[in-house]
Input
Amino acid sequence: MTANTTPVINFRRGGTAAEEAEKEANGSYGRREAKFFGLKNDGDQAVVRLLTDHDDWIYVLQHSFIPTKPAPQGAEHWPPSMMAVCRKDEVFAGHYTDCYLCDNKVKNTFGNSGSPYVRLWALAVEREVVRGDGTDALGGPSHKGLVVGIRDKIDEIDELDAEGKPTGVKFRYPRILIINQPMKGFFANLKALYGLHGSVCDRDYEITREGEKKSTNYRMVPIDPLPDVAPGTPHWQQYQTAIAEREINLDVIVAERAADAYYAKWFDPAKDVDKDGNVVAAGSAVGSVSMINLDAQGASAAAAPAADISPDLRSRIANLGVPAAPPAS
Ligand SMILES: [Zn+2]
Output
């Protein structure tokens, strides 16, 4: 492997993943989901340990900064814009016949073309530098203010019962981050380091945001490898266990952002998502302000016949491209 190879996609063919994503949209989905990596301002810093190495980075076409449709009544958090994975990306192998954002040439929040561009995906653990505070536990007075180690940041996650309510038990897991960034200014820098070290998972990186908007660059400073956090160690295995127990699946996370329900929820004003996660015609979702008691199935079929995939096609797609083995963990 040389530094000049293109990242190899390791992404289940989209139909199956998209269906799983739609199932995930129901139930307890969301409580355990990983946070997105983000540094807001020039000079902000984070320390991360990449969990997805160069060859497994996922890349897809994405629409960025797309204005969301008006917030439904009662919505607490409704962002002004969202990203979306383009439904015309070839990874979906024709699973979708439309892309609302491409088909309608929807502009981004800056008023520019919202055309899709390649972005990459990887998982990481957020880490933090520990400095001596003068106590013996952290190296004594001689190490006060100096870096004495690096540790995982921790997420506390509620255990849920069968009804999805917290039981009071908290699980403590390493803080898993989803990284979704362009090649230029982010993954290209990691790729150069991959060229030097043959892996991006073998050491921590201190990442510093430099600049704003399109000129943003992320400076990556490698930290000396720590033998007890190397791939293959028990500590590394804890990361894999955290991903498994939190049910974090990067394929599903990416595919979910191309799913019918995602586009209906955030962008397409002709559609809504009902409380069961089904895509229905706008205004017919149970609990919406509509006073007309429409039959949801009939309304959906009448309003948007072309965009929906027939159950038959869906079941055929679902049986395509099922991986022979679960993704390597
Ligand atoms: Zn598109």
